[in-house]
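Following up on my earlier thread - several people asked me to post the actual chain instead of describing it. Fair enough. Here it is, all 294 residues.
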Amino acid sequence: MTKQFEGIIAYPVTPFTANGAIDTAMLKQLIDRMIDSGVHAIAPLGSTGESAYLTDDEWELATETSIAAVAHRVPTVVGISELTTASSIRRARFAERAGVDAVMVLPVSYWKLNDAEVLDHYAAIADAVSVPIMLYNNPATSGVDMSPELIARICREVSNVTMVKESTGDLQRMHRLLQLTDGTVPFYNGSNPLAFAALNAGAAGWCTAAPNLNAELPLALYAAIRRGDTELARATFERVLPLLQFIVKVGLPTSVKAGLRMQQIDAGEPRLPLQPLGAQGSEQLRAVLAALQN
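Reply from S.P.:
Thanks for posting it. Predicted structure:
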């Protein structure tokens, strides 16, 4: 039976040892920490997990380690963002064999893809696996911008595509997608600064790296929205917004790994060409995290 994805979907970083290898023990610790905090699902190997900077062997190790660490306590969705359809299929099949509950597919392109090519990409992956697919639209990082009309068409024509993560930060796209699908396809907010508006507009969940550093406020925001307590939800969002703005501005792996170190958790450095957070940024992040404790 397919597990339902809703609520706070947390994206762990991929930790590295001092010599640059994946720190599997730390990855398990990070996942345990977030599940213990109450998040509703785990999504390894997205942008936060530096998937684009991993070799195939490293990606597979992180996938197996993450799925084993979650151990079916909550649903797991593994991110796949590959240039070629063949590579995407290979990773989707690997994740399915490892026991994932769903895969999140972000098309990445060097050449501009037309709608038919994007549709065929999803259809080919769906034909290769039986697990559900979360369609992921993030043109800022992928170079592929899927319109609400194309997304709705893919959801109609490719049966395995059952969820949509929208990260453009355009709330009107989410409203349009709801109209085009009659609200039958759950969508998930991937734009951290838009979390309050998106959840208030009917998003089934919020995909975020914030629980690496603070899970309490995202969970409280989601709970308040579900209860219909808009005033509390808005106040909670305003408290966590400086953290959300900072991690997006600086970059998720860099900012989250620096923040974890401030919390005495060593997840290593981001992988080159990404750079560690500098002194000025560290001072700002330290102040942001301290304010959340007040």
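The chain has a mean pLDDT of 96. That should answer part of your original question.
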